[in-house]
Design brief:
By secondary structure, this protein is α/β, with parallel strands linked by helices. The chain is built from four helices and twelve strands. A hairpin with a 2-residue loop joins strand 3 and strand 4.
């Protein structure tokens, strides 16, 4: 087989078996696909015309100017501390990382990102995020166990990387 034919077959296989599994290509037909580098000689990788739109997620985490943000495709929000980001991304492994981007290209400013409710440890103590920008602390293990037994669905965020007071307000001891 000629090297050029092998290259064409390799490009088609790559598009079909690698790219299209990632971006949900439309059916293979002339109206949906465009050839690169040229339509005239039909040599090169044939990519779906929807590839650019489909491969650019409209939501995810990104960095801008040394800060970390999240966008839902319409608005973006920022993180005030490493632990703020840690709680927000908990259990969200499938949310894409968009790399370095300008926040203004990804929506309007939504302020600080919300913080979910759930349990976390910091400074040798267990705490509970109320989900409204506030948190409380447990001063005894049995208080935590009673609180947790009434909220078994609440996540446990683990040991925070930074002080929660950098992004939440402490309200004192947790009530049951």
């Amino acid at each position: 087989m000629l090297p050029e034919v092998n290259a064409v077959n390799t490009a088609k296989d790559f598009a079909r078996n690698v790219i299209c599994t990632q971006v949900d290509c439309p059916p293979s037909s002339g109206e949906f696909y465009t050839a690169y580098p040229s339509e005239d000689d039909d040599w090169g990788l044939r990519l779906p015309v929807n590839l650019v739109a489909s491969s650019s997620p409209s939501f995810g985490y990104f960095a801008d100017g040394g800060a970390t943000f999240y966008t839902d495709g319409q608005t973006f929000c920022g993180f005030l501390a490493p632990a703020h980001y840690q709680i927000h991304r908990f259990g969200q492994d499938s949310i894409p990382r968009l790399g370095n981007r300008s926040r203004w290209e990804l929506g309007s400013d939504g302020g600080a990102c919300s913080v979910a409710s759930g349990y976390f440890a910091y400074n040798n103590a267990t705490h509970y995020s109320l989900g409204n920008g506030q948190y409380c602390s447990f001063f005894a293990g049995d208080a935590y166990e009673r609180h947790r037994s009434r909220r078994p669905q609440e996540p446990r965020f683990g040991l925070l990387e930074s002080d929660p007071e950098g992004f939440m307000t402490w309200t004192g001891g947790c009530s049951e």
